[in-house]
Amino acid sequence: MKYTNNGPLRPGYTKMISATENPEMMGLDFGVQKMARDEQVNFCFDQEVVYDLLCGKISISWDGSGCAEIVERADCFHEGAIVLHVPADTPVEITCLSDTAEIAIARTANAHRFAPQLMRPEDCMCANEERGAGLMGETSTRLVRTFFDRSTCPETNFFIGEVVHYPGKWSSYPPHTHVEPEMYYYKFLPENGYGLAEFGDDAYKVKDNDLTGMPCNVTHSQAAAPGYAEYYLWCIRLRDDQDIVTTTVPEYAWVTDPAAKFFPNEK
Questions:
Q1: pTM, rounded to two decimals
Q2: What is the DSSP string of 167-201?
Q3: I want to staple 114 with a disulfide (CB 3.0 to 4.6 A). Which of 42, 136, 155, 169 is the partner?
Q4: Alpha helix locations (H) across 54-188?
Q5: SS3 190
């Protein structure tokens, strides 16, 4: 399903999916906070929360400690992730120190307790891995940044990260499925770019600030228009009692073989 923001982000919080309004996303809430210089916002959700700084310079503090960290990210294409991950009922205060800042906020129910963590690229499970290199004629080469999963945070209900998708290429290919729903939130460079989001036998044209959601067992993969880099924040709400199992569509799996031959050199 394609959910869309219909253009540039407005100041304040833009809600994109809701646990109550979008039950097909299995209890996931997601939106983006856009801030102006010196603006301050406070949050305290009764859910596990991931705050992902997309761009800007902010001061951020949590859990009433009074100790603020100053972090900065020029943009989500050229620089690695800066993420605050907190359990339910954790107060968070953010102050914008640049002309503008954008923070993506993903939330879901989780009664488990764990220590809040501010994660810089070196703290992430996968900081900036180039995947697909040397395979499929370099048509699916991309950068993957995985924040964490249950192997690094056993208490979490999230599997979450970012992909920077090279112009004219594919990602999340071959098409695959999993029982858990997944969302993609998109940015493009330049901003007037677009991509195509596979959704089973259908495809959606996606643009800057769009969002797609793949419910249970729907195949999905991505393509970007030539000349335009595509970024997407991906977020999977894990089942409470089971880990994720990803299944590649069998008929397309052969393309990942390093020895696979393609046109015009298929012989």
A1: 0.95
A2: TT-EEEEEEEE-SS-EEEEEEEESTT-EEEEEETT
A3: 155
A4: none
A5: coil
Structure tokens at 131: 């995947």
203: buried, middle or exposed (CB in 10 Å: 19+, 13-18, 0-12)? Answer: middle
Both tokens assigned to 223: 């393509």
37: nearest Cα among 102, 103, 99: 99
Kindly give the confidence (pLDDT) of every residue in the chain, 267 residues in length, as a single tens digit, with 9 standing for 90 and above.
888 877 889 999 999 999 999 998 899 999 999 999 999 999 999 999 999 999 999 999 998 877 899 999 999 999 999 999 999 999 999 999 999 999 999 999 999 999 999 999 999 999 999 988 888 888 999 999 999 999 999 999 999 999 999 999 999 999 888 889 899 999 999 999 999 999 888 999 999 999 999 877 888 899 999 999 999 999 999 988 788 888 889 999 999 999 999 888 887
